[in-house]
Design a protein that fits this description.
By secondary structure, this protein is mostly beta strands. The chain is built from no helices and 11 strands. Strands 2, 3, 5, 8, 9 and 11 form a 6-stranded antiparallel beta sheet that branches. Strands 1-4-10-6-7 form a 5-stranded mixed beta sheet, with no helix packed on it. The relative contact order is 0.36.
Length: about 130
C-alpha cells in the first residue's frame, strides 16, 4: 500500500465562508483534514486539467483520520472529469452537513479500497463554514 501523506488545508476567510485549499496532490495520496469539528460544505472547485483520467475527491465525516483504502467515504464523493476544471455549488438548505470533522483525499478510483493518487497535479478549493 502507498504511504499516506497528512497535510493541513490552508483556510482563507471569504465573507462568512472559509476557503480551504488542497494543492498539488499529484503522485501522493494526500489525506487532508479540512475541519476538526462540525461544518457545512457549500461548494467545491477543482482543477484536474493535468490528469488524463478521472479523479475522485472523497470526503469523510469523521473525528479522526480515516484509513484510505479501508474506510469508505461516508459523506460524499465528487467525480472530477479528466483534463477539466470545474465548480460544484451545493444549494443553501441542501448543504453537505458534517457533524464530526472533515477529511478529504484525491484518488483515481471510486472503489473503497482505492489508494492511488492522480498521476498529475490536482488542486481543489472547498468553501465551508461552522454549523
Amino acid at each position: 500500500m502507498a504511504a499516506i501523506v497528512f497535510s493541513q488545508l490552508k483556510p482563507q476567510p471569504e465573507g462568512n465562508v472559509t476557503v480551504a485549499e488542497m494543492e498539488d496532490v499529484g503522485n501522493t495520496p494526500a489525506l487532508t483534514q479540512l475541519a476538526a469539528a462540525a461544518t457545512e460544505i457549500h461548494w467545491v472547485q477543482y482543477d484536474n486539467t493535468r490528469n488524463a483520467a478521472i479523479t475522485f475527491l472523497k470526503i469523510w465525516d469523521v473525528a479522526a483520520a480515516p484509513a484510505v483504502g479501508t474506510d469508505a467515504p461516508d459523506a460524499f464523493v465528487f467525480p472530477c472529469p479528466p483534463s477539466e476544471a470545474g465548480y460544484c455549488k451545493i444549494s443553501r438548505g441542501v448543504d453537505l452537513v458534517i457533524t464530526n470533522g472533515v477529511y478529504v483525499a484525491a484518488l483515481t478510483s471510486n472503489d473503497d479500497s482505492a489508494t492511488t493518487p492522480p498521476s498529475g497535479q490536482f488542486n481543489c478549493k472547498i468553501g465551508h463554514d461552522s454549523t
